[in-house]
Amino acid sequence: MRADTWRALEELYKEGVCRAIGVSNFMVHHLEQLKEDCSEVPHVNQVEYHPYQQTNRVKEYCREEGIVFEGYSPLAKGQVFSDPTVLQIAEKYRRTPAQICVRWSIQNGVVTIPKSTKKERIQENCQVFDFQLEEGDLAALGGLHDGRHVSWNPTNIEGHQASVSKILNPTVCTRGFA
Ligand SMILES: NC(=O)c1ccc[n+]([C@@H]2O[C@H](COP(=O)([O-])OP(=O)(O)OC[C@H]3O[C@@H](n4cnc5c(N)ncnc54)[C@H](OP(=O)(O)O)[C@@H]3O)[C@@H](O)[C@H]2O)c1
Predict the structure, then answer these.
(1) Does ligand 1 come within 6 angstroms of the Cβ of 116?
(2) Which of 46, 69, 100, 143 could form a disulfide with 62 if both were Cys (CB 3.0 to 4.6 A apart)?
(3) Which family does it belong to (predicted)?
(4) The pLDDT of residue 174
(5) Under DSSP, is residue 88 helix (H, G, I), strand (E, B) or coil?
(6) Could you tell me the sign of the dihedral formed by the alpha carbons of 15, 113, 74, 178, in that order?
(7) Sheet containing 164-168, strands listed edge to edge, beginning at the edge strand earlier in sequence
């Protein structure tokens, strides 16, 4: 099912209907399986990524394979806002906790997609290109990993549930093919 869905996306890509095609929640073994079954490597893989959930093995694999690693839930759905380490670093840089976490993802080479329903917060989350976290602070945030998922854990999904996404123009459209 997963390989069949991906082959359908490959066709759309070859026909020029999609500029790029990608997947979501694929761990290394899912990507390896796809490589065996299909011809086109995904252009992007969207995976949970925040200080508590650093999917670094997948990130590294994606880098080696030329797959853009996109991190979702970068604010851990708000859980980072009460974290003492995040708050301390935010105070040091005179930035908000959200900006610190978005910046941390970016400095780790991750395409990050914070979400807010509020215009001012969307703007705030974008204002992260005029400062840089020092190595020690990157490491302190990196040390917060505890393996928790704020979304779901796709590691043991072997069947048809992992979703395949397609990217149209510059917009990411995530479509589940469950
Ligand atoms: N592929 C997948 O399986 C998958 C799974 C989960 C999520 N995602 C995607 O990932 C993206 C974001 O993830 P997410 O929504 O799960 O979590 P998130 O971006 O980590 O957190 C969103 C929460 O943080 C709040 N927030 C955002 N900016 C803020 C700020 N500057 N100050 C204070 N609060 C702020 C939002 O509330 P307000 O809206 O009230 O500002 C919302 O409650 C979404 O586009 C989502 O579709 C993908």
Answers:
(1) yes
(2) 69
(3) Belongs to the aldo/keto reductase family.
(4) 38
(5) helix
(6) negative
(7) 111-112, 68-72, 44-48, 20-24, 164-168, 171-173
Q: In this predicted structure, what is the pLDDT of residue 1? A: 82
Residue 118: DSSP 8-state: S
Element (H, E) at 144: none
Compute the residue count for the chain. Answer: 178
| 19/41 Cα distance (integer angstroms) | 14
Q: Among 30, 69, 75, 86, which residue has the most ligand 1 atoms within 8 Å of its CB, making it the best to mutate?
A: 75
Alpha helices in the chain (DSSP H): 2-14, 28-37, 56-65, 84-93, 97-107, 119-126, 135-142
pTM over 0.90: yes
Evaluated on CA atoms 110, 115, 116, 119, the torsion sign reads positive
Determine the distance separating the centroid of ligand 1 and the alpha carbon of 161, expressed in angstroms: 22
The pLDDT tens digits of the residues spanning 25-66 come to: 999 999 999 999 999 999 999 999 999 999 999 999 999 999
45 touches 23 (CB < 8 A): yes
